[in-house]
Design brief:
8 copies of one chain form a homooctamer. Chain A has helices at 3-14, 20-27, 44-48, 61-74, 85-94, 131-143, 159-163, 166-170, 185-190, 213-220, 235-251, and strands at 32-34, 39-41, 54-55, 77-81, 98-101, 106-110, 120-125, 147-152, 174-179, 197-201, 227-229. By secondary structure, the first copy, chain A, is α/β, with parallel strands linked by helices.
Chain lengths: 255, 255, 255, 255, 255, 255, 255, 255
């Protein structure tokens, strides 16, 4: 609650349009619906730009369904990530608008076509095995109202595959670079463009990869300026941050 | 070199305005000045939006001076980070415009006043000990043409200190959140604003902090959406990425 | 064996009420029932305030049953943690008073209603996925004679969800704060209350979470004073320690 | 700010005893004194039971002095931990009541004799090298109003040294167990007493000790119930938590 | 091949009792039977005191059988560790003398009763879950000709359980101490006896146990002198080393 | 594209044998076939000496089949590593020349007999359990045109088994040394020969082996000069590098 | 206190030769001299075979001196390890019999010539840089009454250097093998002899040695049976354990 | 000693040209000069292609001098790495032919000009700070008789700097790629050439670089085939291995 809201409530109370009890309650306003196992944050879109996202892993299908219902009661879109087959069936049955993005392991529900922001978000993936994470980033960016270009299998071991796609990459507002193994893709791209790059390490690899640690450390130590990093396999986080950046880039254009 | 450049050179060659040797050389154009110990990238500003930055650590004062000279021969600004006292003396002596930012451990040299972009970059620091890293981020963002607001000592252990600054934080285009210890600051801020947040773990702490690893892992695992992370103590990287995002936000506004 | 016990045995021996052999044996008194695979400590409640607890993981259902029988022969309560379905069936069949706490993965057996101590123990959980660990803490604290208040899904990414429950949290004698991901919950709470806080990291998360290591390190490095930490997923340990603290708080009140 | 405070301000405003501006400001009341490099939390004692503590490491002597002044302007006690020789000199010169605890690396300033709470806090140290950490815990507990009993050099390799002190240990309200090397002391003590035990791993040792990691892991994995752990070398945190527990134990006794 | 052997072969060759070819071959004598997938070392018992042991993990049942046959062709005993159910069936079928030690996951085959060495090897286990590792140590020591005393469930959290068995422990030639969790058992025992102690960390535990790392580090950092350590869960290694020590202790007694 | 190629295209363009569009396209020549999920690099053999290799893990059988087809359209050989049973069936059905190397988990397809290079590549394996990795190295080296000698079960615990094979090892052009456990094999061999040694740590072992980390660190720290290391279990990488070295050794011999 | 001692005291008390107070005190007998900062264990030699050893690191020279005095008041020998130059000066000045072992960083004080036990303890060191640790082991074994043979610079990279010393190594009762780098020495030796081997990893090396971790892991994963391990750089621990084993070997020989 | 040598000695002995004692000694021939602290391996050049190299770190200047003398008594070249200033002075004074390579921290002593092998070894360094390690590799390769081309400051963040040097890189027999930070250089190069690449991670970087671990893991996980890796900062090892490979490439050319 910011100072303006505080002032407004105080003035309404003085004017008698709200009672002492009401004013007191408003100043500690409850924006949360309590489901017992979860406290759904219904005002999140207003505060952070997007409704609460349901991280499916570790929640029962029934819990996911109930939280989805609650979010859709207050918002026009919902995103469920890391969703298992049972929850998918439940969601598709309940919500006709639900779409299952299989490779991305996501379900999205949108109550109607949303306008798309200007500016492409380009998703790069180093190898074929990185696609599930790249797709999670792509689906997230799309459901948040962005146009997405996918450029896959452009790892640094065959660097000409990357170079022939440079014009498309340079045209992006934001680049998400997904890579496992030695995670060198974002470093190389960072030296070639002037746009923000979000690096996503994946757990692809074996041996001294240590579940994506090798790629994570490489990306954090990138010699390329302007690279920021999200958690291993966190396609959602990268797509979300890319969307926030693109939203900012669009904010000045609306008259 | 993009397709357009390639076409142009080919056409000039056909038209006879460039010779075979010249065309061949241009197609493999040398944008690098070789100092023996360093290959200075003089076209970097054109390609990535900012001239090459000199990472002072591990370079001799003399090497730093020579690289700075070379960059300034082609660019109007130079930034030296992690710079030691000897190199500072050398730089201040040679370049009248050089400024030493002591707490940030940086030297900046600007050939004249640069126009500032619209939109604040807010730098948050959790504790007094995080200031050197926060200042490195702030100086970097400033030398790249951004307005910076510093909000320091707002760690989560006294969360009301953070909340009373929320209006200023919400007004930012981009937020850089610098924190050591348990690194919780970016997670809390992420739930309160809709702008991009760049988290910088610092090596402040002791015991099971492991040189900033605790804060780094916390930030990578942030439950707050939209948080991206740079390397431990990498104030420069955060300031650079914040500037890239702000530059993108301003790109649509220039008529 | 403390000095008073030693003196008493010596006096009885001198007085002839115990023989040399008896006195010698008493001075090395056997408080242990040996089952071959386990040495059940029948005097533990007298010494540490609660009978031996059966950690179910790694023990066969039959071993669990036999140890439970032995403890119940000397005590009025037993707690089995991390118990599998087979052992649950065996225990429910043998002991009519046995209760299976499914989400907590515990079985409790109480020979009758126990008086509850004054003072609430508040169990906070950051997310829905942390509930199994939070419930283990809650069940442990309850079987040890405490009143427990559960406040769930109050993670720092939506900090107003935590704040609206502050009055209940501030009323607690002891707070147990359960969190995975970046584990920031205890740090924020520590700055708001003056009661002891026991932090429990959970293995919830993925990527650079490393099985709860991220949350563990964050909690150990908490900038909030008064936070102590137990092992990853160790809901039992937190509930036990919280009960010990509450027992101490009640010890002075019994006339 | 809790609901009662909110109600009171609203009623005063209605009654006209505070103006709209005053009420608005009070509802967002500033409890922080901003020193530029630090935001001193002057109401912390009211909120958490003890004024802000100055962690000396990473702060300049001058910064420490200024923060100490600000805290003493609002509180009767100040504690500076991890304090270097220069800051010690400055503090002793400025504050006649300042006391330097050399082995504990602390300075305390108390404006007058404080009443001591009932109940001993026992500080155990496994070896001679663990004394600086044990003393930090002891000084912290004392400045917070507790009686402290020190029992040093009672490591498990000579367990009879521990046993001959058992009566004193059993008489404690809270036990702080400080140990480096293999960190086994708290586990052994936990099986012998029913009071809360706070374990402090120290960085004492070499080789595969890894700066205290060995002791930390051992304590987190303690088979003794009721053991909670603080960060490596964090004597302050253990003393603070022990004091909070003892304060709770005393809370019911004040008529 | 030692100098005496070299001399002898040379003298036999000079004397004509061996040919040049024979001498040359003898000097590079082949003590290995090559099975293709394995090179069985038939002279190992002569060289190191015990025939080659078959580590069953990672070998097919058929490979285990073939190696066992080859060893038994040259030796009177064989030990198979970490053996799966299929290999057990195969071995029991082929060798009437084979014995399956279920809890120890071993099969032993002895061609006849072997004389036992003087001196007990005492195997301590901290908890019920440590028994498989303790039994592997016990079976190994027994098949190598030693008398073994098992003392189980004597962890340090109930230290009186350990103390009542001290006379038996002090009577041992060698002590093997098996413990998971915080691994404190060997440290406590080391301060009470003067015999060699071999510590075996087990992977029993959870959370920050990290697969036995906590116990391993604790044992390596033991403050008790005379403790040596083997790999996590390596009951075989501990039993083998204990037997070597006991064999040395017996070596001087045989007239 | 090297300067010679650039010149040639420019001259052809001037001569009119290629058009402006063709020249432009050639200078940015597309050597990649895009399958959507994969961008197959058809000119890789020309550039690096061997066609693209299909790392089967993480790819669907159908994806593997399609990539294999594409590679075989441009090359005479294909190697699929880490291939699962379904993909094996598919490949064997489609390509009559496909061979399944079961222990090596590889499929090779060769369109005809290839000439073998001079010089043996010797593959050493320390134990029977290291054979899958050793075989992957062997199959890789063979399909790349090398003669391979396998010397297995020659670990350092029975060092005479290694020594009796020294003449064969010393005759090699390159040695690949595969070992798990403590990974000492390459160090010992390095002191005995003057040829390049490629060390392959395997994940064989348990406890503090940490999935091959122990062997990896040992090999990186080898006191034997001339040892280079590949990733844990990376038999393919070792075979590939060995072949490159042997190809170089043969390059000077072709008149 | 064992049962025999308990019986004896009880009988003396009955017989009236000790009073009730004396008997009570004896049964809780104080074998400790309390110096405030240290509790010196004067009966340790009786209990574990050697007086308390002073680990010099982390103790002040004055503390070392006082503890040394106390030990010498009850014992004929004292060993100080990891001793700094100031403490050396103090000890040499106070005790004429004190000997400084410079390379071993030890001081020993022996009140007279002690008889040596039968049987050599052989100390192997892999490289010249491992000598300080090897010497600490050697000095420890000597002061405990053993004959020591030093065999240095016999690392596995030049394995013939080791082999030419095999007769001396095979003649040992116990072998201590000290090695840094890849730590392979004990594995090779274990396959060649039948005596107990104690492996000591040293922190010698660089890069991915990680302060001795590489050698430690290698030794724990040794494929050679009978190898036990002590902490990194713990020459004292190895010498102590070797002496205990040799003492056991000699115990049967004293009539 | 190989079979041919064995046969020859046996024949000489039979022929009477060597005595029994001589033959016996020859068969166990001593190729080692024992300096007490070091056992110098005088036949190493014959066995492995280069005399023993002196790793200066951890050896006293005097020890280095003595070992250098001993090697030079049997060989024409010596290489001292990681050499400190005192040892440099000593060596330059004693040996007129000694050359100090300052940046490489090496001293080389060559008794005369050596013929150089055909084929360049190219040393790549990613950044200016990687030069000491790159120079160690270069000096090592040169003293072993190779021609070396240095190509420095060609890191992947400015990939055109690398590409303009591709013709020189492709002309190499062997490539050594030295890089800190994210260590991506070898992966990119591997996709462009067909020659062996030896990757050297350096400890250059900060934060989550962990002393070169980030670069090491990246290189081990390289998606580029044919990359092998040496220890962090191990320029010597890379230079040595590169020389061995180049020697092999030249072996077939000598008539």
């Amino acid at each position: 609650m910011n100072p303006e809201q505080t002032r407004r409530i105080l003035e309404q109370y003085k004017a008698g349009t709200v009672s002492l009890d009401e004013a007191s309650k408003l100043l500690l306003a409850d924006e949360v619906v309590d489901l017992g196992f979860a406290a759904v944050d219904t005002q999140r879109a207003a505060r952070t730009g997007f409704p609460e996202v349901i991280f499916g892993s570790g929640k029962s299908p029934d819990q996911i369904l109930k939280i989805a219902r609650e979010i859709l009661a207050h918002n026009s879109r919902v995103l469920v990530t890391r969703v298992g087959p049972e929850a998918v069936t439940l969601l598709l049955k309940e919500f006709p608008a639900a779409v299952h993005h299989e490779q991305a392991r996501c379900v999205t529900i949108e109550s109607g076509p949303l306008p798309k922001r200007a500016g492409e978000i380009v998703i790069l993936a180093a190898g074929t095995s990185d696609l599930p994470v790249a797709e999670e980033a792509a689906v997230t960016a799309e459901v948040m109202g962005n146009m997405v270009t996918r450029i896959y299998d452009v790892g640094v071991a065959g660097i000409h595959r990357l170079f022939r796609r440079l014009p498309a990459i340079r045209a992006a507002h934001v680049v998400v670079a997904v890579a496992g193994m030695e995670g060198a893709l974002p470093s190389v791209v960072a030296g070639l463009i002037s746009r923000p790059i979000i690096a996503v390490p994946t757990s692809i690899g074996y041996g001294a990869n240590f579940g994506g640690l090798a790629a994570l450390l490489a990306m954090l130590n990138s010699c390329g300026s302007g690279v920021t990093v999200v958690n291993i396999d966190n396609g959602f986080g990268a797509g979300f941050a890319a969307s926030q950046i693109n939203a900012l880039a669009n904010s000045g254009r609306i008259p």
